[in-house]
Structure formats: structure tokens, C-alpha cells
Design brief:
Layout (H helix, E strand, L loop, with lengths): L3 H12 L4 H8 L3 H8 L10 H8 L3 H5 L11 H6 L11 H9 L7 E5 L5 H8 L3 E6 L2 H13 L4 E5 L11 E7 L7 H13 L1 E12 L22 H4 L5 E12 L6 E11 L5 H6 L3
Parallel strand pairs: 1-2, 1-4, 2-3, 4-5
Antiparallel strand pairs: 5-7, 6-7
Helix pairs in contact: 2-3
The structure holds S-adenosylmethionine.
The site of S-adenosylmethionine (SAM) has 21 residues, from loops.
């Protein structure tokens, strides 16, 4: 979790419209110190953390990207604690699109955001992708690790909150199925920019999100930390990428045992540029 602290300081400072100089003045440090924290060249003195969290109106856990054990940010933790797999082990349809559009030739690094109990991460790892996956529900992450052991494959799985966690490494594929509605609207632009910036050239994003439709009743699993997207909102973040597939559909669902419907927007988009292998061939 290298430099999560620095990235969070930078993000929250900008949200509060504070310059590095203004934050430095309040903390009685130099603005160069702030710049070094934000770029990961140094860390703030531990004694400054309470003051930093007061000014940035956050808490130390959030600043460090740590999800405390008692955080009740999802209804899924309890569901995943049952022995059965709540979402089953059948991969989502979107996985097959990824396989078609970016097959795992060579080392293809895939990040899954909001992986739940790991059905899609399992599919990708078994097909030869190098998978990193995170979810806020510890019980889900435990199941992903259990699947890793059972199928003798490696999935790097960890617990993180997508609203706080920012990427530190680059990926070929960023994948998320039915999870990004857990990002509050005001954070989405920044989170999507972070995911885009940490994607290699010619890499893809395969994402779907629940969207709000006035004629669809709230899901029985609806929780207070779920924030539906508006129709088309997801696509709007990808004007500078090549859109390979975008669509909206309404599908029936029986999770939780209560029949209901979801409206969902799906996007497959490719980052412009040259893939690493091509650059090597051209001696770049
Ligand atoms: C509808 S489930 C989908 C799970 C998985 N993608 C699948 O299709 O099986 C939404 C997932 O988002 C996770 N989640 C909710 N809030 C989150 C957050 N703030 N950060 C990371 N994951 C979160 C939940 O724990 C849950 O596993």
C-alpha cells in the first residue's frame, strides 16, 4: 500500500481547495514537506496526523487507506460469512468479453475492483491472467484466498475501500462487475481518472454499473452505501478512449430469493497507444 497516505493527503487537500502552501502554513511545515509526502518521498511525523486529519476532515484509518475491522460499509460481509457462495461460482458474462478482447498472452495484469467472493477473479486466474482483486468485505476476501488454495492458483486478494484506495501499480485490464455503485458520485471522476492513469496503453476497462431508472424498484439488497449511477454516466468518463462496447440493459435477478430487476450500463473501452510488446519490437 505504498504511498496511499500521500495520495490521500493530496486528494483531500484538493477537495478542500487548499494549496500545498496553505496546508503547510496550518501545519507549520514547509510546502516542500507537503510535496514530498504527496509524492511518497517522505512521510509526515506521526505526531502531525491528528492535526492533518482535523484539517482535512477525515480520520487516521481513512488517511492510511485502512478499513477498520468494525466498518459497516457493506451488507455483504454477513452474506459472505455463510459457507455457500452467495453469488455462486459461475463467472459473469463480462469475463468472456475480456477473454475475447484481451487474451492472456504473456503476463497480463488484471485488477478486479469489488471482487466479492471471487467468482470472476477465479475465472481470470484459471485462464492465465495475473489477478489482483480487492473488496471491502473481509469474508469475501477470505473466500477468494480459499479459492486460490483450493484450485492451486494465485490471486493477490486484499481488503480495501474503493472510495479511499488509490492504485499504485499499472494494469493491462481493470475489471469490475456490479460493484462501482459503492463509490459516491462526487468521488467518481477522480477514481475513474486514477484507474485510467494506472492502465497500460492498449489496456482495457471492462466495467458494469447499476443505473437508476425511475420505473425499477430498489433492489431488496439495496443498502445505505449504494449509490446508483445515472444512465450514461459511466461512458462519459471515456471520451478520450476507444469505446469498444457500450450498452444498457435491464435484467431479472433472484439474488436474496426475491425476484427483482436491475438496469445496468456496460462498457468495454481501450486506452489509446501502443502495447508493450509492439514498442519493444519497434525498439522504443
Ligand atoms: C453486488 S456485489 C458484486 C460482487 C462481485 N463483483 C460479483 O459479481 O460476484 C458488490 C460488491 O462490492 C463490495 N463493496 C461494497 N462497498 C465497497 C467498497 N467501498 N470498497 C470495495 N468493495 C466494496 C461488496 O462487498 C460486494 O462484494
Amino acid at each position: 500500500m505504498k504511498n496511499v497516505l500521500g495520495k490521500n493527503i493530496a486528494r483531500l487537500r484538493k477537495e478542500k481547495k487548499l494549496t500545498q502552501e496553505a496546508l503547510a502554513a496550518q501545519l507549520r511545515v514547509s510546502f516542500q514537506a507537503i510535496s514530498k509526502w504527496e509524492t511518497g518521498q517522505s512521510y509526515p511525523d506521526i505526531e502531525l496526523l491528528p492535526q492533518i486529519t482535523d484539517i482535512l476532515e477525515t480520520n487516521i484509518d481513512a488517511l492510511l487507506g485502512h478499513v477498520p475491522g468494525d466498518a459497516q460499509k457493506t451488507i455483504y460481509h454477513n452474506l459472505y460469512e455463510q459457507e455457500a457462495f452467495y453469488w455462486g461460482l459461475q463467472p459473469s458474462e463480462l469475463c468472456y468479453e475480456v477473454l475475447k478482447r484481451y487474451p492472456p498472452n504473456g503476463h497480463v495484469r488484471l485488477l478486479e475492483v469489488g471482487c466479492g467472493e471471487g467468482r470472476d477473479a477465479l475465472f481470470f486466474a484459471r485462464n492465465g491472467y495475473e489477478v489482483t482483486a480487492f473488496d471491502i468485505a473481509q469474508a469475501g476476501v477470505d473466500k477468494v484466498r480459499w479459492l486460490s488454495d483450493k484450485f492451486n492458483i494465485y490471486i493477490r486478494a486484499f481488503r480495501a475501500d474503493m472510495m479511499e484506495y488509490r492504485l499504485e501499480e499499472d494494469y493491462d485490464i481493470v475489471y469490475s462487475s456490479r460493484s462501482l455503485h459503492h463509490i459516491r458520485q462526487e468521488l467518481r471522476s477522480e477514481v475513474m481518472e486514477d484507474y485510467k492513469a494506472h492502465t497500460r496503453e492498449q489496456g482495457i476497462h471492462a466495467l458494469n454499473v447499476y443505473v437508476d431508472k425511475p420505473f425499477i424498484a430498489p433492489s431488496p439488497e439495496y443498502d445505505e452505501f449504494a449509490f446508483l449511477w445515472t444512465s450514461g454516466e459511466l461512458f462519459s468518463y471515456y471520451a478520450d478512449w476507444q469505446l469498444e462496447q457500450i450498452n444498457e440493459e435491464i435484467y431479472p435477478c433472484t439474488s436474496s430469493g426475491v425476484p427483482h430487476h436491475h438496469a445496468i450500463n456496460t462498457l468495454l473501452a481501450r486506452k489509446p497507444g501502443k502495447r508493450q510488446g509492439e514498442m519493444q519490437k519497434e525498439g522504443l
